[in-house]
Specification:
The complex is a heterodimer of chains A (131) and B (166). With 131 residues, chain A is of the alpha+beta class. Chain A has a domain of 82 residues: Nucleic acid-binding proteins (OB fold (Dihydrolipoamide Acetyltransferase, E2P)), CATH 2.40.50.140. Chain A is built from two helices and six strands. In chain A, strands 1-2-3-5-4 form a five-stranded mixed beta barrel. Chain A is globular. Chain B is built from seven helices and no strands. The radius of gyration of chain B is 19 Å and the shape is elongated. Chain B starts with 6 loop residues before the first helix and ends with a helix. Classes of the chains: A alpha+beta (131), B mainly alpha (166).
């Protein structure tokens, strides 16, 4: 039994490493808003790609030659906000308002509001600033 | 890294992934309100059943649950685990297909696939040992492999959860 315990203890090391990984990684999380900065962020650029689908919609936006990923809500919520495939097309100018990733090396944000062609879409109305 | 640096095989792979993304069932899943969460729920159900089967099987191999006769119990749990794995693979492939080109670049997804392969290899090694006479060496190897199996599958579980967070 004693040797069994030692083996368990030794094999516990990778488990412990996994646990530590679990604690550290949620700082990068894209689910929810915990991975974003608190302060409001505004991005202006040209849409290069639109994805409206599960698990959540995204825009790829070109900002002065740099490609940004703008995350929106799940498709049902994004479409309910009025933003569906007909609302915008690659080449359109877009303003995205929301929160950017805490990781500054990452060109990624989550939008509460997007403005395309003079239309405003509040994909997270509770988080969008007053109009 | 851009497509121009991937070489011919990389581009062919990417085209294959794009073809999955635009296939009819995956397109439907992309926009579905009910089906996607349902597939997601079935994936979780499969994982629950899979890890239950694996853990109970491994615990018996490790010398716990001694009230259960080893051979039939391990067989039953392995059957449960393999069936559940099939369910997890089908539902997982569907969800992967929705954004195949994104997930393929996700480090948590890559690690998860590696850990699944290692778990499979671990099972094959265990089956190899099972065919040998039941001596001290075989029991020792079984315990090490059983413990490794638990660690690997926990790793698969955690990596799977992390895919949505990277």
């Amino acid at each position: 039994m004693r040797s069994g315990m030692t083996r368990s203890a030794r094999s516990g090391v990778p488990l412990l490493a996994l646990g530590v990984l679990l604690l550290v990684v949620p700082a990068l999380a894209h689910h929810g808003w915990s991975w974003t900065e608190d302060g409001q962020f505004r991005l202006e650029g040209i849409i290069t790609d639109i994805y409206i689908g599960n698990p959540h919609a995204t825009l790829d936006v070109d900002v002065e030659g740099e490609s940004w990923r703008v995350e929106l809500a799940p498709p049902s919520r994004t479409i309910a906000a009025g933003f569906d495939e007909g609302a915008a097309a690659p080449g359109d100018e877009v303003v995205a308002i929301g929160n950017r990733s805490r990781d500054e090396s990452e060109r990624r944000m989550k939008a509460a509001r997007i403005i395309v062609g003079g239309n405003t879409y509040n994909v997270y109305p509770g988080r969008a600033p007053p109009s | 890294m851009g497509p121009e640096e991937w070489g011919e095989e990389g581009v062919a792979g990417l085209e294959f992934l794009s073809a999955i993304e635009t296939s009819a069932p995956v397109e439907a899943l992309k926009r579905s309100f009910y089906v996607y969460p349902l597939v997601n729920a079935l994936h979780i159900l499969s994982i629950g059943a899979l890890l239950t089967g694996v853990f109970l099987m491994d615990l018996r191999i490790l010398g716990f649950l001694l009230a259960q006769p080893q051979a039939p119990f391990v067989r039953l749990m392995r059957r449960l685990a393999l069936t559940a794995f099939l369910g997890a693979a089908v539902t997982g492939t569907l969800m992967f297909g929705v954004r195949a080109t994104e997930y393929v670049a996700n480090p948590a997804f890559a690690l998860k696939m590696v850990l699944i392969l290692l778990s499979g290899a671990n099972m094959l090694v265990f089956l190899h040992f099972s065919a040998r006479p039941n001596d001290q060496a075989r029991r020792g190897a079984g315990r090490v492999l059983g413990l490794l199996s638990i660690v690997l599958w926990l790793g698969v579980l955690v990596c799977g959860r992390l895919i949505g967070f990277l």
